Every structure is written in structure tokens, then in C-alpha cells.
Amino acid sequence: MREWTRTRKMQRSLVYDRLATYGFYGLGTLVLLLIFWLLLTILGKGLPGLSLEFLMKLPEDMDPGGGIGPVLFNSFYILILSLLISVPIGVGAGIYMAEYAPPNKFTEVLRICVESLSSVPSIVFGMLGLAIFAEYFQIGLTIFGGAVSLAFLNLPMLARVTEEAVRAVQNDVKNASYALGMTKFQCIRTVVIPMAMQGIVTGICLVAGRAFGESAVILLTAGLSTSGEMWDFNLFSPGETLAVHLWYVQSEAIVEDARQIADKSAAVLVIVVLLMNLLFRIPLWISNRRLKK
Amino acid sequence: MSTPVQQYVPEERQVLTPPAKRRRFSRSARVRFTNRMFTYYFWFSILALCLVLGLVIFFIGKTALLTFRDISFADFFLSFNWTPEEEHYGAAAFIINTLSLTALTLALAVPVSVGLAVLIAEIAPGWLKNAMRPILDLLVGVPSIVYGYLGLTVLIPFLRRLSGENLGDGLLAAALVLALMVLPTICRISDDAISAVPKKYREAAYAMGSTRLQVMMRVVIPAAGRGIIAAVIMGMTRAIGETMAVVMVIGNTAQLAKSLFTPASVLTSNIVMQISNVEFDSTWNYALHMMAFLLLIISFVLILFIRYLGRKGREQA
Amino acid sequence: MKKGIADIGACDWDASMDVPGFKAFEGQVANKVAVIPFATVTNKNVKVNNLTTEQLKGIFSGKITNWKEVGGDDADIVVITRAFGSGTRVNYQAKALAGGDIVKKAKNYKEVGSSGDMKTAVATTPNAIGYIDLVYVNSDIKALSYNGVQPTTDNVINGSYKIWAYGYYMTKGQPTGATKAFIEYVQSAKFQQGSLKKLKFIPISAMR
After folding, report:
1. Taking CB atoms and an 8 Å limit, are B237 and A115 in contact across chains?
2. Low-confidence ranges of chain B (pLDDT < 50)
3. Which of A126, B109, B217, C119 could be stapled to A220 by a disulfide with Cβ–Cβ 3.0 to 4.6 Å?
4. d(CA B171, CA A116)
5. pTM of this prediction?
6. What is the pLDDT of residue A236?
7. How far out from the chain centre does Cα B38 lie?
8. d(Cα A201, Cα A206) in Å, to the nearest integer?
9. Do A29 and A56 lie in a common domain?
10. Any chain A CB within 8 A of the CB of C199?
11. Domain extent for A15
12. Which residue, among A214, A203, A224, A171, has the nearest Cα to A280 in the 3D structure?
């Protein structure tokens, strides 16, 4: 055989390839640097002052030295409640769209409507929650109302991401499972969902992060105050979350150390979101390793 | 979509089953029961989603349409004069500003995010992949107010020095902040879409002697096209609807943005600034609701447009 | 409050009466709870220390656009104002600008949504001017004298500094029950002389 010589076209492609690799790495480095700088600024301003006491104390309206105890608790509580509502419905709706829905115009319109829904400003969901819970049901500003409105906000994204993840599962795997005699649901449970799990977990992470940092919705539906006690599980008490507290301290507060409280709260928020993401990713990572072995 | 194979269930009499086993709890019956239950569950979820959709449209639409009791269509959509104190309700400036802001944000965010997604999914080694993904997810958790505040205290002075204007607020500042906010969304969803492209496509392309770049550009990205389009749409809708961060860096003046640095206002920031201060039954309130409704419609149209572009691209591919 | 969601509404003006830009809200009763002083504030790089009513009117209506016209450096004035519906804005417009207009569309003009945002905006924008409750003023921004009078609580009490207003708690009809008890607590001497003063507000009793 003749020796393999590189044609000029091949050479050019290789050069492009090399350039592109450098380009991508450069882009990635730039973005990473930006993100690190952002995180360092937030954490740098807030971490030094953090103490366990700050995390546990009640917020003070008029004197300096308030903490974020009940507010932090409310953040978690509302987050978990809203995830409990939005994940089953969102993932279920996504699977429906990908597996059960007939491929006609109506489904297409439905899909676009769901996507448009994610562009509704968060305030409008707050106003919706206010209209439903505070006016129609007359229960005022509550944790329950906040969690439900937050769930509404996150539903569209969850549904779409799940749908795309499920859609990406290859048809031949599904056909193989049907050939073995599984029902549709067995196929979904044992084959499709594990394969789409990575995408679904991405969706949940994105949604949880957004829910934790969301302030406009909670502001209007769960209020700007807490019940004053630390571990209050009552669904109907007002529920100020950390993000709302941050907003409040930044815009209206007149205590002496408002700026520090705001910085510290921002740092706490970022750390919690990091931990949450790790929490969601670890089971996935473990199961991936087990599968590879 | 695959067609489910007809279920072949052997008659209970023909197969040797222990006589004690009651027919109702036989395995196949259980499986069929679970199947049916879960089908109902999936139906229920989509109906719940439709309910939420309906609620939102009904709720905003009801108040929004009351606007046109007092103002004409032309007045609302074409007039650039927004002075509610004097009964002028022209929203044209906001509409155009919203569209320009979205376009600018996408122009900044999409190349960077998709490029980053390609980096993570294709080029980066394993440890880098596992490190970058949680970091990007972190960006999503940063509350919008913090972005706004950082934009106000860091970005705007920087832009001010860069441009020499007196106020760094305006479209550019808002677009930069928004681009940073939607970056993780577009990037992570595209990343998943690209990772989900089956190996055999890539291997086939490599077998034919393509370089990695060619494999990426000609095979993988078009194959992941659906997912990437969905990612871009998610990012765009988030950008259109973002309020808190935009309000802090855009200047909030009801005028058309003629340059990147004039303080302006978009539909969302205007709603935020004025909604808590207007009377309930006034035309102003209705006009604000109409602007929220407009957002829904605008994103509907933009989504149709992006999907159309995506379909054209794939037809050519 | 009109819809019954809240029992008390805090307002910087008496909403049961007509005020420029707002019709009276029917059926509401105003309860005085504090005296709130306001001040014109600028960024620390502005060299001007005092502005008269005429100068303020000119600046905020957009007629005066350069600091050198009022005795400062040759630099464009950046006007920062609060959104419509803000109590601070209503009072400032009435008392300091004597009812003058505030510019709505201009190049060097910006609106913010709250006092905290106003403080941040003025502190970080060179050549900026705005207005804010006196209680928010600290070392980040500079408060200007008005017609030669320094903005201090003493000057408000002795009547020489005119930019101040009463703060009210609005209730639907006369307050009853827990609402009434709360309002009475806030109006009591204990609260007024203690916490209220600590926050740099002025007790109602001090104004004669």
C-alpha cells in the first residue's frame, strides 16, 4: 500500500480542529474565571462574618445583630414542599408528552404553550398566588400558598426538560423491551427513566436552584415575616424565605448592619445551593460507577 | 414512536398455576393494573399542567382585556408615550425594548453556552466534566437580586468607565446580566442533549476519517438539535420574564432605547416598578396586566420563530 | 388593605385626603405614628453643599443639567428619583420642590424602586442627586442643606428645616381590637421616646 499522505484538505481540517480545541478551551477558561470571580466576590463579602449564631438567631427589625434562623428554615421548608408538588406533576407531564401524546398539531401547540409559560415573569405567579390564596380562599399569606405558587413557576421547565430527556432515549431500546413483553409502564419504569435520569436530575437541579433563590413569588404569597419561632412546621404561618429577606434588607431595612446581613445571606444562599447540587448529583455518580463496573 | 406489542396473556386455565393463587393477584393482572394506574397518573399530570396554564391565561387575560375598554388598540401598541398620570398608555417603547433586550441577550448567551456545552460534553476529560457541571448549577441558585446588586455595584461602574457616559445603565448592562443568568440553563440542557447522542453516530463519523471538529459540527450538534433548541427556548423565556435583576440595572425610564447606554425600561421592569403602587380598578392596573399578557404572546411568537429556524436548519443538514 | 388582605397599611401621607397625583382613598382612617424627615442627597464627589428651592426645582425638572450652574464642577447632573407611588417622592415633591415637576424622559435620569436602592444608586454613581428619608443617610452619601438649613432632627423640631412629613398607619375605618392595641403601642410614649428615636425618626410629640 502506498504510504498515507495527508492531502491539503485533510491538513486544513486538522488545523481547524486544533484551533477549535484551543478556542473551546479558551472560552471555557474565560467563563470559569468569570464564575469563580463571581462566587469569590459573594462568598468573600459574606463568609467572614458567618457564625452558627447568625444562622440560628431571629431577625431583628430595629437593632443590629439579627440573624436568619427562622428565615433559613422557611427557605428549606418551602423548597421541599414546592418540589414535592412540582416534581411528580412536572415529570409525569413530561413523560406523557414524550410517550403517550399523539404526534399531532394539538400536542405541538400544547408544547409551545408550556414553553411560553416559562416566560411569565415570576411576579405574575406571585399575583396569581395572591389572588387564589389570599383573596379567593381568604387564608392570607402562608407557607402553603408560597410553596404552591413556586411549584407553578417551576412546572413548565421540569416538564420540558423531562420530555426532551425521555425523547432522547433511543427507540430500539424501547422496542426491545416491548418485544420482551413489557407493558408500557414497565418499559418506562425500568428502561426509559434510568436512561433519561441524567437529564431529569439536571432539570430538578435547575428548578431547585431557582426555587431557592426566588424572591418575587414568595414575597407576594408568603409574606415578609416569619412566625417568630424556629422550627415552625405550621403550613399556614407566614413564610419569609432567605431570598426575600435578602431583598428586604437590601431595599428597606434601616438597621445599622443591613449591608452585612445582606452579604452574609447571599453567601449562605450560594453555599446551600452548592450543597444541594452535590446532594442531587452524588446518587447519580454512584450509580454510574456501579453500572460501569 | 414505537408501537406497543399486543399483550399476549396466556389463559389462566392453560398454564399450570397453583390452585391457591387467586386470579386477581396474578402477576400479569398486577402488571396491567399498575400500567393502567400509571397511565391515569400521567394523564392527571398533563391535565394539572393544563390547568395551571389555563389559570394563568385566564387570570391575566381577564384583567388585561379590560384595558381596551378605555384605550384603543392603536393607542396601546403604537404610541410611544407612557405617562399614566396623564392617561397616556402607549406601550410601544416597552415592547420594542423587550424585543431588543431579548435579542441582545441571546446573541451574547447562546454562542457562549452552546460552546461551553460542547466543551463539557465532548472535549473535556472526565474530572473536568464532573467539576464544571456542579459549578454551573451553582450559578442558577444565585438569587436574581444578588445578580442585580452585583450588576449595580460592579458592572455599571465598569461600563461607565468603558463608555464615558454618565449612567452605565441601559440595555447593554441588562443584557450582560441576563446572559450570565441564562448561561447555565442553556448550557446544562444542551450538554445533556449532546451527551445523549448515541456513540455510534460519532464512531461512524470517525471511521470515515473526520476530525473531532468535523464530527462535532456535522454530526453531533445537528443530532442534538432538538435538545439544543429546547435549551435556547428555555433560556430565552427565562430572560424575557426576568424582573428583579433587570430592574436594578436598566434605569427604568419609559423611553425607547436608542443606544446601548440610555436608561430604558422593558415590559417586566415596568410592571415591577408600578404594580404595587396602582389602584386596583384603574386603567393603569389593567394596562399593566395587559403588558404581562403581552409577554406571554411575545414569547409564544418568538418560540414559534426559533422552532421554525431550527427546523429549516435541520432540513438543510 | 381595601381587599382585606392586610389590616394596617403604612403610608407616608394621609391617604384619606387628596394629594397631588393621588385621589383620596375612601373609607380609610389615618393614624399618625411618627415624623419622618427627608433630605436631598448627592454622591460624595459633588462639591455643592446647599441648594435653594429654585435650584432644586430646576435640577429635578431637567432645566438645570450641569453642576457648574449651581456652583459645582463642570459635570452633567445625574438625576435619580423614586417610582410613582412612593411616599418619599410625594412628600419631597410637595415640600422641597414646592409642587414642581420631576422630569420623566432624559438621558441622565434613572428611577429606582426603594429607599435602599436609592441609597446604593446615589452612592455608586458620580454626580448623582436624589432624595431619601434622613434615617437612611450614612457615610456613603452626602446630605445637602436646603435653603441654608442643615438637615438634622433638631432643625426639624425647631421648625427651620421644612422637608418632613407625618408617617401614618392607615386602617379601614376606625381601628379595633389587636389593630387598635398595636397602633396605640406605637403611639405610646414608651415606643416613641425609645425605639423610634433610636432609629432617627422623630416622635410626634416633638412637633408643635
Report:
1. yes
2. 1, 11-15, 17, 20, 317
3. A126
4. 23
5. 0.80
6. 78
7. 29
8. 8
9. no
10. yes
11. 1-46
12. A203
Output the pLDDT for position B105: 92
Q: Do A135 and C3 touch (CB under 8 A)?
A: yes
Question: ipTM of the predicted structure?
Answer: 0.78
Q: Are A67 and A202 part of one and the same domain?
A: yes
**Residue A135 is part of a domain; what is its CATH number?**
1.10.3720.10
C-chain CB neighbours of B278 within 8 Å are 85
Largest CA distance in chain A: 87
CA A252 to chain centre: 27
Q: Where are the alpha helices (DSSP H) in chain A?
A: 8-46, 52-56, 69-95, 105-117, 122-129, 143-167, 171-179, 184-187, 193-213, 216-222, 242-251, 258-292
Closest chain B CA to residue A88: B45
| DSSP conformation letters of B180-225 | HHHHHHHHHHHHHHHHTS-HHHHHHHHHTT--HHHIIIIIIHHHTH
User: What would the pLDDT profile of A80-115 be if each residue is shown by its tens digit?
Assistant: 999 999 999 988 888 888 888 888 888 888 888 888
- In whole angstroms, what is the distance from residue B247 CA to residue B169 CA? 10
- Backbone phi, then psi, for C28, in 5-degree steps? -115, 150
A243 in the same domain as A117: yes
Q: Which residue has the cell 396586566?
A: B289
CA distances from A150 to A14, B7, B111, C136 (A): 50, 41, 30, 33
Q: How would you classify residue A29: left for phi > 0, otherwise alpha for psi between -120 and 50, otherwise beta?
A: alpha
Give residue C202's identity as a one-letter amino acid code.
I
Closest Cα in chain B to A32: B132
* pLDDT (0 to 100) of residue C68: 83
Residue of A27, A39, A155 lying closest to B49 (CB–CB) = A155
- pLDDT of residue A223 exceeding 80, the answer is no
Please indicate whether, in this complex, the C-beta atoms of C110 and B274 are within 8 angstroms of each other: no
Coil/strand/helix, residue B266: coil
Q: How many domains does chain A have?
A: 2
Of B84, B160, B262, the CB nearest to C107: B262
Cell of B289: 396586566
pLDDT (tens digit, 9 = 90+) per residue, C192-205?
Answer: 776 676 666 777 77
pLDDT digits (tens, 9 = 90+) for C129-148: 888 888 888 778 888 888 87
Residue A293 has pLDDT above 70, yes or no: no
Query: By C-alpha distance, which of C133, C143, C140, C148 is closest to C55?
Result: C148
Residue tagged 382585606 (cell numbers): C4
Task: Return the higher-pLDDT residue of B299 and A57.
Answer: B299
Residue A42 and residue A62 share a domain: no
List of residues 6+ apart from A170 with CB closer than 8 A: B198
CA distance to A192, A204, A287, C52, per residue, from A197 (Å): 8, 10, 11, 68
Domain boundaries B73-316, corresponding CATH code: 1.10.3720.10
A259/C30 Cα distance (integer angstroms): 33
Partner A contacted by C198 (CB < 8 A): yes
Residues A60, A34 share a domain: no
**Helix H or strand E encompassing B247:** helix B244-249
b/e per residue, C38-77, with b = 16+ CB within 10 A? bbbbbbeebebeebeeebbbbbbebebbebeebebeeeeb
The answer to whether the CB atoms of C85 and B274 lie below 8 A apart is: yes
Do A126 and A32 share a structural domain? Answer: no
pLDDT band at A1 (very low <50, low <70, confident <90, very high): very low
My answer on whether A167 and A88 are in the same domain is yes
- Give the span between the Cα atoms of C118 and B288, in whole angstroms: 24
- What count of other Cβ atoms lies within 10 Å of the Cβ of residue B17? 13
Give B122-127 contacts, CB < 8 A, sequence gap 24+.
Answer: B122/B194, B122/B212, B122/B216, B122/B220, B123/A21, B123/A24, B123/A25, B123/B212, B124/A28
Q: Indicate if A40 and A56 belong to the same structural domain.
A: no
Alpha carbons C73 and A117: distance in angstroms, whole number:
51
Confidence band of C22 (pLDDT split at 50, 70, 90): low
